[in-house]
Amino acid sequence: LIHLLSIEGLPRAILTHILDTAASFVSVSDREVKKVPLLRGKSVFNLFFENSTRTRTTFDIAAKRLSADVFTLDIGRSSTAKGESLLDTVDNLSAMAADLFVVRHSQSGAPYLIAQHVAPHVHVVNAGDGRHAHPTQAMLDMYTIRHYKQDFSNLTVAIVGDVLHSRVARSDIHALTTLGAAEVRVVGPRTLVPGDMADMGVRVFHDLEEGIRGCDVIIMLRLQNERMTGALLPSSQEYFKSFGLTEDKLRLAKPDAIVMHPGPINRGVEIDSAVVDGPQAVILSQVTFGIAVRMAVMSIVAGNVA
Ligand code: CP
């Protein structure tokens, strides 16, 4: 693996290798991540052309724990604001001996453009492009599911909410089907579920109660208002009434079901505070596992980890 741009098309062996490598970076307590010299002497450039809290920070921590030199470009203060193109920016950072670019961009395909452009020894990891893909989020989601549920083959997983605009949903669906989840469901209003879901091997539900009944894992998604036009945008109250996950509705899932969310959360819109802060939520564990998973991805693409 030279770059990680998407989960789509990757074989199960590679996904499992990423999960196993991540596990090797997590200490027995699952809290403390070890520092290793796998990227010593390498330069990692974080290029976040779109806002981020979790992904940007955990990539930063992960690269430092791999002993890389890390540079996080402040895009707001960069020469992008003066009209410098994406590829000219990349060329200039390559001239500073970049070894790995971590790229988030609002345009689907931007990390691919960079991967095609850079020299063969330079690596690119997609940190979320438009509504297309968020492969490291999917891998940390898979790590979290495997941590709590061990095996994918008996699991029913529901992905709930604004699937239409969600790069996380697409990457999670590819990862779950490749890893052999028994059933993957998407649950959401007709306006926010894309038409190609059946082709991706998932069951579609437009009723939350039906969709989460008997599930082992529920992945909640926020309304991605920044990618919606007026006609699609439901009111928060209206949406919460039909698709907000409350403690009452959660009782329809299996008693040991886990609740996940990639963040950022909008409490009282797609999920009730009582669920976010309740015993079945593993949302902050996802964030913690993100460090080890991003260490795994960067060490596999750029650190000669077989
Ligand atoms: N899950 C996720 O991508 O969060 P951020 O946008 O904060 O990185």
From TrEMBL:
EC number: 2.1.3.2
Catalytic activity: carbamoyl phosphate + L-aspartate = N-carbamoyl-L-aspartate + phosphate + H(+)
UniProt entry tagged with the keyword Ubl conjugation: no
Domain Aspartate/ornithine carbamoyltransferase carbamoyl-P binding: residue ranges: 3-146
Pathway field: Pyrimidine metabolism; UMP biosynthesis via de novo pathway; (S)-dihydroorotate from bicarbonate: step 2/3
Root EC class: transferase
Domain of life: Bacteria
Location of the Aspartate/ornithine carbamoyltransferase Asp/Orn-binding domain: 154-300
Residues binding L-aspartate: 82, 167, 222
Residues given in the record as carbamoyl phosphate binding sites: 54-55, 104, 134, 137, 263-264
Transferase recorded as keyword: yes
Family statement drawn from the similarity comment of this UniProt entry: Belongs to the aspartate/ornithine carbamoyltransferase superfamily. ATCase family.
Subunit description: Heterododecamer (2C3:3R2) of six catalytic PyrB chains organized as two trimers (C3), and six regulatory PyrI chains organized as three dimers (R2).
This protein's name: Aspartate carbamoyltransferase
Source organism (scientific name): Comamonas faecalis
